Amino acid sequence: MSAGRLLSVLLLLQSRGRMSARAIAEELGVSVRTAYRDVERLQGAGVPVCAEPGRGGGYRLLDGYRTRLTGMTQGEARALLFAGLPDAAADLGLAAEVSAARLKLLAALPAGAREEAARTAAVFHVDAPGWYREPEQTPYLSLFADATLTRRVVEARYRRWRAPQEVSRRLRPYGLVLKSGVWYVVAATEDATGTGTGTGTGTAGATPATYRVAQVLDATLSDERFDRPRDFELGAYWASYLADFAARRYTGTATIRLSPRGRRRLPDNVAPEVVRAVDATATAVGADGWVEAVVPTESAAHACGELLRLGTDVEVLAPAVLRRAMADTVGALARAYGVTDRA
To answer: Which of 38, 51, 177, 257 has CA 20 to 30 A from 245's CA?
Structure first.
């Protein structure tokens, strides 16, 4: 028998009112038989749970009865931040704590406020991952969450894009970030020899680096503790990281022509920075609605793949290397489909 589960049944009845055994079982993820037994144990402990038989019946607390056992555990207090992000809480291994914390909060509210909270929860839902992508597998995410909260060093093996691709690192996790359904750990870093890597020096006050949690191949939580710098702010770091990433990402520009339909299709096919650049630089080039604009580019190959999504609604004017890449790709496609030039 779980004392925590019995408290959850009690708080459910206090916050929801009348509930059937089946509804209690579904809420707590147990069998209906277990729900019946839990209610009987509450009754045996002196909690005034009334049974109402028949269609629409169920269990409810005696009118006016309220428990004051709503204090939160340390885990539930930690999980409170994710009360509106159930998927993120599950990723971090905090689903049960979030559910328990939510029940305790609702139970502590007066009836009117509790009903308003329930109405609000029924009309808002957060789905963080982007479209057209399966969720990433992050088996070490809960380990990094524990390391971040307890300030313990993690021994990790990581796969990165440049050679050597697999590296060993000693990470001092400062925080976790969920970006468009992808988890990142921000950590001061050392390689296996204790030498600082990336932008950091490996010391507790080092400028941290950013690691994609799904790229961690192996991780072990050590007993070594570290001090998180007092002046480190995760939100400020992440904003700076994104700005630096954008600056490093776009190394060139291209001049393009866009049809009215191509401009409407931009947000669904290119990065927001490209859309903003078109809005800022677009000039009309004829009475048919076409515009000319200057957009940022990562590389000719990347820009070619991105702009080809717009089909005949875009034309690259410059640079020559990108225009040639577009022409070569279109020519290769034509040959693949058996299309030849017609006079």
So the answer is: 257
Look-up: residue for tokens 């009215």?
Answer: 260
Decide: 50 and 62 in contact? Cβ < 8 Å: yes
- Tens-digit pLDDT string for the chain (343 aa): 466 787 788 778 877 788 888 888 888 888 888 888 888 888 877 788 888 887 778 888 887 776 655 555 656 555 555 555 666 666 777 677 767 766 766 666 666 766 776 676 666 666 777 777 777 889 999 999 899 989 999 999 999 988 889 999 999 999 999 888 889 999 998 754 455 554 433 344 467 899 999 999 999 999 999 998 988 999 999 999 988 888 888 889 999 999 999 999 999 899 889 999 999 999 999 788 999 999 999 999 999 999 999 999 999 999 999 999 999 999 999 999 887 665 4
DSSP 15-61: HH-SB-HHHHHHHHT--HHHHHHHHHHHHHTT--EEEE-STT-EEEE
Cα dist from 140 to 110, 147, 158, 215, 327, whole Å: 40, 11, 12, 10, 45
For residue 259, the SS3 value is: coil
Q: Please give the structure tokens belonging to residue 314.
A: 């875009």
Give Cα separations from 317 to 201, 273, 291, 322, 335 (angstroms). Answer: 45, 19, 12, 9, 23
**Cβ atoms < 10 Å from Cβ of 47:** 17
DSSP three-state, residue 159: strand
Residues 6+ apart with CB under 8 A from 158: 166, 167, 168, 169, 211, 215, 216, 217
For residues 38 and 9, the answer to whether their CB atoms sit within 8 Å is yes
CA atoms of 304 and 290, how far apart (whole Å) = 20
| Amino acid at residue number 215 | Q
The three-class DSSP label of residue 218 is strand
Taken in order 324, 245, 191, 139, the sign of the CA dihedral is: negative
Tokens (6 digits) for 235? 């939100």
